[in-house]
Write a structure and sequence with these properties.
Elements: E1 4-8, E2 15-19, E3 24-28, H1 31-37, E4 42-47, E5 51-56, E6 61-65, E7 72-76, E8 82-83, E9 85-87, E10 92-96, E11 110-112
Parallel strand pairs: 3-11
Antiparallel strand pairs: 1-2, 2-5, 3-4, 4-10, 6-7, 7-8, 9-10
């Protein structure tokens, strides 16, 4: 059975489709992921068996490899949104979960690098929640 997952960047100039399935979904709390997301963690899906097709905007995709690390981020040069990156000489596709325009088909498998997690992210589930902006 083949799954199709569609996604895009925030400005909509980059659109992509993945055909295949995700093998894992990790929430990474390393300092690199905190820096490049501006948040507590990255939420990335991993696949070694999918085919990535850029439907539009492939020329707007820029990939940054942090020197002397395995940290890679691809993003839209127009709006800065994270988009899929092709790694390990094409053997791995890493897809930011928030870039998908369809429901994510799997739940996260694990939190990674919790030793460097942000000091403010403990007990976030105890905060008040709102459907939109608070009034």
């Amino acid at each position: 059975m083949s799954n199709k997952n569609a996604g895009s960047c925030l400005c909509g100039k980059i659109k992509f489709e993945l055909e295949g399935s995700f093998e894992s979904f990790f929430l990474c709390h390393c300092k690199y992921c905190q820096k490049d997301t501006g948040s507590a963690h990255a939420a990335n899906l991993f696949t070694t068996n999918s085919k990535l097709s850029w439907l539009s905007g492939e020329d707007l995709v820029k990939t940054f490899n942090l020197p002397q690390t395995r940290h890679v981020k691809s993003f839209c040069t127009n709006c800065g949104s994270a988009v899929p990156s092709i790694q390990n000489n094409g053997g791995l596709i890493v897809v930011p979960a928030g870039s998908l325009d369809v429901p994510v088909s799997i739940k996260p498998n694990a939190h990674l690098f919790i030793g460097s997690k942000a000091n403010w992210e403990d007990e976030l589930d105890k905060l008040p929640s709102f459907e939109g902006l608070p009034r």
